[in-house]
Amino acid sequence: MNLQADCIVCGRRAIHLRPTEEPVCARPECRFVASEKGKIPHTAYAQFFAERSRHIREHDRQEEVRAGILRIAQEKEDAENRACRQERIGNMPGYGAARYPLVAVPHNGRRLINLPERRKREFRDKLNRLISSLMASPDALYTGKSEPNPPPDGARLLGGICTLCAGACCLNGGTHAYVRELTLLRVMRADPSLRPRHILDLYLSHLGRKTYEEACVYQGEKGCVLPAELRSNTCPDYFCPPLKQFRLEFHEDEKPEGAFVVVRAREHWPFPAGVENGIAGAFLLTASGAQKLG
Ligand SMILES: [Zn+2]
Fold it and tell me: What is the distance in A from the centroid of ligand 1 to the CA of 227?
């Protein structure tokens, strides 16, 4: 029988599977605290329990505060984005929300610099480790499947939005570029004549000269400089929340012909309280390109 009860560690509601035991939620940190019971003397455990429980509850409280601040900031931005759309194209016939949905994206505003040698070495070392691991057990991996491509009419618009954002999500590629064993396995299966050293040379030969500061080692001014067939599945398959939403619009009866894109100033959504994330630009995106509207 499943019982609902409050977790004795964090106090959150938990499904309690064994009524004979004290209720503990499924979070690993709460499970860990509960699992230590009986392993150390009673008084020491009581103190350990009290400290960990206080720490976890305080962390949860801070997270709630943070989430509340973000929610308010998000609502404010949503209202600004809608007002911006209304002001620019609200009264233009033929540019309704179904044909030109509002899409708000972050923006990569980092400097373009020469890719530092240190970051090249970091990438090379990671690649070497991946290749060694792959050669040790090449058949132990599932190569994964790419998501089906978005509809062709939508793909160009999606790409146009990514261009306006300049790849804020790609920044996280850092010195790994999301390349994994399965990426390399896919590359090797596509061309079985490639030996491990060829793979290494191939990837290193495509490293960007000018890339964004501390960004993906392949992130250049005009986007990714790594040929599509060498990229990780993560790169074509990842869609940020606004793009995910935009893709859904293509399943509607009236499909988008473009988008009204609001570019915000910062590169990520979660930002500390009080940090300005104003509108950096507004664009009307159509199949033939983006037009800046202010
Ligand atoms: Zn808990």
Answer: 46
